[in-house]
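Subject: mismatched residue count in predicted assembly?

I count 396 residues in my input, but I want to confirm that the predicted structure covers every chain. Input:
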Amino acid sequence: MTEHTAPRRRGRPRGGTDSRERILAAAVDEFGEQGYDGSTVRSIAGRAGVDSALVHHYFGTKADLFAEAVGIPLRPDIDVPGIVAGPRDEVGERLVRYVLEAFERPEVRRRGVMLIRTALGSRVTSPLLAGFLARELIGRIAKLLAVPDAELRATLVASQIAGLIVTRYVLALGPLAAADIGDLVHRVGPTVQRYLFD
Amino acid sequence: MTEHTAPRRRGRPRGGTDSRERILAAAVDEFGEQGYDGSTVRSIAGRAGVDSALVHHYFGTKADLFAEAVGIPLRPDIDVPGIVAGPRDEVGERLVRYVLEAFERPEVRRRGVMLIRTALGSRVTSPLLAGFLARELIGRIAKLLAVPDAELRATLVASQIAGLIVTRYVLALGPLAAADIGDLVHRVGPTVQRYLFD
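Triage response: the counts match. Full output below for your records.
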């Protein structure tokens, strides 16, 4: 029996699928315990007993790994810079439309609401969401604004978008849950626009 | 030994403090299970084994009882109508200032953050917060607006205020958590004003 497994063991230390799964499990544990900011690719690799290079090989950046670990098919770290870099007078509406259209997709809504419930529900997991928002959404928007109060402006945008998601999708407050996306983009877009540029 | 307790039992069915405590315990259970809308003074009285009149006697309205049950020394059902009824061009700033100043008080912040974590954290308790917001905040603001889309306008106000509380006090996102109240009133007030009247 051992004759069949021995050559594989000698050739490479672990099977690829096995390492990938262990890295993902380590990421879930590490993000959950240390938050987004407190976790590094190196600390996750250490936890999984692999080299950092293997984590990068399988998952790319820390943001890539986070998206995979929480299972959310939504990537503000990839999508938002393009939205903010487009025509300036429509950034507010484009951002609101992007978020709402994403949350209309059942797989984003289901997992997104679950992440928000989990992250907001406990003092331990809140830094996870806070850290991800700060680095991958607010930080990226702020960098593109290049004004002294850019961080505060971007965080105010996050406050309105977070409030919209919480009231429409988590609390499902009647009139907001029933409103169509076009109407909400029209009403909320100018708020985001004003926070960013006025 | 029983000679001492017998006369009291005959005189009145229960001590006043005992009834009050039982009503409060019943309210916590009933609000937790049925949400704010699903609970009535009658259903809470029934659960406590007392008459509805006794609930009104000790606690007043359902909103009074809710405030007592969740232990939050903040009463939008009482304060908000006055704010909205004041000079029209400053309603947005007054509402934002009211909420922020309330949450700067440690006892409001501590219990408020706890209620938000509890209410958002679970599918079961979310209707509690949603129902209270809908009836006592959004409903009261909408009634004072008297326009066809008043409910949606008031709910958008709630979305920005909820987002502000979540990002500043629950997630404690850096630039927003550090900003002073005057600056935030100046930046967020016009958003609320526009949702209400533009």
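Confidence is low (pLDDT under 50) at residues 1-13 of chain B. Marking this ticket as 'not a bug'.
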